TrEMBL record, chain A:
Mg(2+) binds at residues 45, 401, 454. This is Ni/Fe hydrogenase subunit alpha. The keyword Oxidoreductase applies. PANTHER family: COENZYME F420 HYDROGENASE, SUBUNIT ALPHA, F420-NON-REDUCING HYDROGENASE VHU SUBUNIT A. Belongs to the [NiFe]/[NiFeSe] hydrogenase large subunit family. It comes from Zhengella mangrovi. Its cofactor is Ni(2+); Fe cation. The lineage of its organism: Bacteria, Pseudomonadati, Pseudomonadota, Alphaproteobacteria, Hyphomicrobiales. Ni(2+) binds at residues 64, 67, 448. Signal peptide: none annotated. GO terms for molecular function: ferredoxin hydrogenase activity; nickel cation binding. InterPro entries: Ni-dep_hyd_lsu, Ni-dep_hyd_lsu_Ni_BS, NiFe-Hase_large. Transmembrane segments: none annotated. Fe cation binds at residues 67, 451.
Length: 480, 142
């Protein structure tokens, strides 16, 4: 019998931002507790107070260097309400949608090809020196090159719609500040076939991995939960840009449906725990124990009735057939779901590029000023809520953000515990491969831990083992 | 020559890279193209393939001097996140995928304040930025 031990994985690798995992082992080397901690305080809700309403959609992009467009659009949607606009001119809404589809596909592509691919291609237990992107590039260079061109396509869409690749200004309260010139449209149309072909190949890779490793996938951090996302109000279709909120239980039955998202706070409560800066939201009527839920690509597959683009819809049918139409609870299926969404985004981008409304000139609407606005969008990692109040001087007096990773907080903690119990309990020696299982579970959520700061000289991963007295008995550092 | 300044201007001295890029762009040095971004990402590889020299500018933690200017060699292996792709990793990506090897340097400019969500550089970082810009302007003209 050995002394109780504390294992820390800090910071996590191949996730966005900084967090750490602590795992407490008892004297029988069994896992007592395992938690994901968010170690940086975001503080953005306070930072934004006093800012003018028109600058908020631009400033919030600094929340995150990975999905700034999602924050840009969620804030713009909230400000639409504040300037009294419930319906945008068609050109404005379609330009924003184009921007959003470009953002979602490029984010998913990066995650799948560069962050998840080493685990998928080489296995979770492969030596760390092999389980990295360079080995992927050496063995499958076409994957690496395609990922770069797919990313570039998405980034070019963002630049064309937002004005700049970073700090875009495209979406403004009540509309958009540009349309899409014909020559830009034609340049995208010339590339879209190749992009869609590559997306189909990537989808096949993700699907085949999932089906060929069905036992592993079913047993890895797989547990029932509730799911929530926006769905299209009229027919329950997948809609990444706009809709009403739907939550379903593990049996697929609705908990709430067609909820106008401005009323999110009537259904969701944000719990606080002393050991993390990240809150723990839950569905009020179910309480904190039963009411936690998950968001993201797999959650969206589980909540929607169908996808309104043919190739992605057929792919979703295939995914849902694995569980006979019931919600799929296996977190690793997120990779498959993510690639379905890449295909969906490209199908939507193609549809929009053929729509003459993108060349329209009615770009902005106005209405009667309101004090409060809520903007909700389905970001790459899941549902994203921005809520503001603005005073008579146009200055923000209140801000509340619920980002996708916060929605998934309880799910990620349960995944960490599940994997730690299955893969670490009972072992005298904890190997790097075992610890990677924990990281794989977190990485499948593609969390963005809102660190948004970095500099030369920081360590990417440190693992420390402590004995019962808190003394350091082992330490391992993984370089970038 | 390509200059890429990266970092988050909303986190004080983490904005040193973009601030450096802005200063170099404003100087209009002949033959110098400037980009800025939140972080290095994989698609920067395409820009690197098309240049013969690149300078990465970023904030630096733990430096004894105002800045550190050094050669970057491509990494042969390693891990990365989309958030923290290093110059070495990006150079490795370019070499592995495209067989290209532009001459590369990193300009690490020492920062001291990173904790707050706030725009603007600390006085010491601003001074370090001035020195880094002066050094680079002289170096680029040689």
């Amino acid at each position: 019998m050995s002394e109780p031990r504390l294992i820390e994985i800090s910071p996590l690798t191949r996730v966005e931002g900084h967090g750490k995992v602590t795992i407490h082992l008892n004297r029988d080397n069994e896992v007592d507790e395992a938690r994901l901690h968010i170690v940086e305080f975001r503080g953005f809700e306070r930072f934004i107070r006093g800012r003018l309403l028109w600058e908020v959609p631009v400033i919030v992009q600094r929340l995150c260097g990975i999905c700034p467009v999602s924050h840009h659009l969620a804030a713009a949607k909230a400000m639409d309400q504040i300037v009294g606009v419930d319906e945008l001119p068609p050109t404005a809404e379609k330009m924003r949608r184009l921007m959003h589809y470009g953002q979602v596909m490029q984010s998913h592509v990066l995650h799948f090809f560069h962050l998840a691919a080493p685990d998928i291609l080489f296995g979770f237990d492969a030596p760390a020196e092999k389980r990295n992107i360079f080995e992927v590039l050496r063995q499958r260079p076409e994957l690496g090159r395609r990922a770069i061109f797919l990313r570039k396509f998405g980034q070019d869409i963002i630049e064309a719609t937002a004005g700049k690749k970073i700090h875009g200004t495209g979406a403004i309260p009540g509309g958009i500040n540009r349309n899409l010139p014909v020559e830009t449209r034609d340049a995208f149309l010339a590339r879209i076939d190749e992009m869609q072909d590559w997306a189909m190949d990537a989808l096949a890779l993700a699907r085949d991995y999932t089906l060929e490793h069905a036992l592993l996938v079913r047993g890895f951090a797989s547990f029932p939960s509730n799911y929530m996302s926006l769905v299209r109000e009229a027919d329950g279709a997948l809609d990444l840009y706009h809709g009403s909120l739907r939550a379903v239980g593990a049996d697929g039955e609705p908990i709430f449906d067609r909820l106008a998202y401005s009323g999110y706070h009537e259904k969701l409560v944000e719990d606080v725990r002393s050991w993390s800066y990240m809150k723990f939201p839950f569905i009020k009527e179910l309480g904190p124990e039963a009411g936690w839920y998950r968001v993201g690509p797999l959650a969206r597959m589980n909540t929607v009735d169908f996808i309104d683009t043919p190739e992605a819809d057929a792919a979703r049918d295939e995914l849902m057939a694995v569980t006979q139409g019931s919600p799929n609870n296996s977190i690793l299926v997120n990779h498959w779901a993510r690639m379905i969404e890449v295909l969906h985004c490209l199908e939507k981008i193609r549809e929009l590029l053929h729509d003459p409304d993108l060349q329209g000139s009615d770009l902005q609407a106005s209405g009667e000023r309101r004090e409060e606005g809520v903007g909700v969008i389905e970001a790459p990692r899941g549902n994203l809520i921005h809520h503001y109040r603005v005073d008579e001087h146009d200055q923000v007096t209140y801000c509340n953000l619920i980002v996708s990773t916060t929605h998934n907080n309880e799910g990620m903690n349960k995944a960490v515990k599940d994997v730690a119990v299955k893969h670490l309990s009972g072992h005298e020696q904890i190997t790097e491969g075992m610890l990677n299982h924990v990281e794989v579970a977190i990485r499948a959520y593609d969390p963005c831990l809102s660190c948004a700061t970095h500099a030369l000289g920081q360590m990417p991963l440190q693992v420390e083992l402590f004995d019962a007295d808190g003394a350091l008995v082992d330490s391992r550092t993984r370089e970038a | 020559m390509l200059v890429i300044g990266y970092g988050n201007p909303g986190r004080m001295d983490d904005g040193l890279g973009p601030a450096f890029a802005e200063r170099i762009a404003a100087a209009g040095l002949p033959g110098v193209e400037v980009q800025q971004d939140y972080q290095l990402t994989v698609e920067h590889a395409l820009a690197l393939v098309a240049t013969d020299r690149v300078v990465f500018a970023d904030a630096l933690i733990g430096s004894g001097g105002p800045f550190d200017f050094k050669v970057v060699k491509p990494a042969e292996q390693g891990d990365f996140s989309s958030h923290s792709l290093s110059p070495e990793t990006l150079m490795g990506l370019v070499a592995t995928l495209y067989g290209a090897a532009p001459e590369a340097h990193v300009m690490g400019i020492a920062g001291v304040e990173f904790g707050e969500v706030k725009e603007g550089l600390s006085p010491r970082a601003a001074d370090n930025l001035d020195r880094a810009v002066a050094f680079f302007t002289d170096w680029a003209s040689r």
